[in-house]
Design goal:
The structure holds two protein chains of two kinds. Chain A is an all-alpha fold. Chain A has four helices and no strands. In chain A, helix 3 packs antiparallel against helix 4 (57-87). The longest helix of chain A has 31 residues, at 57-87. Chain A is flat and about 60 Å long. By secondary structure, chain B is an alpha/beta fold. Chain B has three domains: 14-89; 95-300, no CATH class; 314-481, 3-Layer(aba) Sandwich (Rossmann fold). In chain B, helix 6 (135-163) packs antiparallel against helix 7. Chain B is elongated, with a radius of gyration of 26 Å. Chain B starts with a helix and ends with a helix. Classes of the chains: A mainly alpha, B alpha/beta. The interface between A and B is large, with 83 and 118 residues.
Chain lengths: 94, 482
Amino acid sequence: MDFISILSIFVLACFVGYYVVWSVTPALHTPLMAVTNAISSVIIVGGLIAAAAAGVPGAKWLGLAAVVLASINIFGGFAVTQRMLAMYKKKERK
Amino acid sequence: MEFALLLASGAAAVPSWVLLAYLVAGVCFILALRGLSSPESSRRGNIYGMVGMAIAVATTLATHEIAGIGEILAAIGIGAIIGLTIARRIAMTAMPQLVAAFHSLVGMAAVLVAAAAFLNPGAFGILDAGGDILAVSRIEMALGAAIGAITFSGSVIAFAKLNGNMSGAPILLPMRHVINLGTVAAIVVMTGLYAMSPAAGPGEGALFWIICAAAFAVGFLLIIPIGGADMPVVVSMLNSYSGWAAAAMGFTLGNTAMIITGALVGSSGAILSYIMCRAMNRSFISVIAGGFGQDASSGDKGPAIDRPYKAGSAEDAAFLLGQADKVIIVPGYGMAVAQAQHVLKEMTDHLKAKGVEVKFAIHPVAGRMPGHMNVLLAEANVPYDEVFELEDINSEFAQADVAFVIGANDVTNPAAKTDKSSPIYGMPVLDVEKARTTLFIKRSMGGAGYAGVENELFFRDNTMMLLADAKKMVEEIVKALD
């Protein structure tokens, strides 16, 4: 993809983010931070590419290290978000 | 083999199903955030997030020739074990520092990915015909590494302050604004120089490493002057940065999933910082400039002790609460520190059994991160439809018999409404003084809130001070209610 199409996606995604995040209820701001943390670890894609490529050992090890760090975040972030969200309960109707 | 060659020749040759897969992953991430608009839809949203991540990882692994799948799976496995263990064991009160720690990992991962792209640009498809790294990719890489490095070192400091490894007090270096702005300017200039540099082959150009080092220093210098109570803004800001770092690397890779995510996370953190700043009536710049609350320890303790105030016992409090028709509870950071949320829930159950209407009022900056109090109350099984935000409940204090303030101070200070000379003037506050009686649980009369401002409410006639550890006091109230 050329730079301009990527930039277009980026700018539009910023607007989507703006509206989506304003609609998040303040009670869920902590889970919001935890889940944004988990999804920003999509940077693992870069780590995987570097770790998969043959030829440059330095880049491969950096890539593997990035994969470990991003995985901690992905698994930890989604799991802790799940744990928090499971706690939000409505009043029991009697 | 032909496929690998195609990939190596540049991002343009990626088959369209791959682009679609990344797009789907990006949309899943949007749905993950969209789900958070209500607690009912949030759990499904989180599943969308996981699905999106799985798609992104699987697509990447399927479309690249992998030299050693074993190592990669081992790396993911190690991360999964560490991540899941932490997520299971962490106490809910420790959530702010956990989020800070997670931010630092995203930042570091961004730096590592940028460095890997710098050393092996061929694998990332960012080489031009002459074997040099494309100029635009050099800018993206340098920015990704710089933002990642700032996120990393900034988050490490935020973690240390939140976790108590480091004093929450601001550390003020002389000339810090000049040093910080100078270093940021230097990073921008060096990024430009690196983009134009003739030495642009794989691994060439010491400037890249200097940019990384300078950015690590900026993150450190930026956060040390910021006080503990401003951490909600800092954590949100670092959240935003971790997103921008991911977006920058997404540009390098031409990866839509990364770009969409980066934009989402970047705007999310920015909006949260804005909400936090507005809730304190302070500008973002003044928070980032740091130093707020530095006077809290100096001269403010003296006069507080001299003025007369009404102190009460747990029995007095239990009597007032038991007689009330309507009680509004205002939790603050002190509740988190004392871990008093569970016993507080027990107290509300006793009150409800007596027919008292109980509601919770949350100020946006209560605690050390956005939504901190809501999570703790949810942990204690307080139903979320009994918990209200400031603007939704503030008018109800006038009808309440008791406002029960537990571990909060500045967010109730009426000086914010009346005293133009007060540092917190203009900050929206909870109108607890409008309730017939205000009960304050506070450890002692000495020590003002984080803003270093005395709360005149403590000395009013309809205020009763309950001086004790929040958890012990509430436990005693529960006993007295029985």
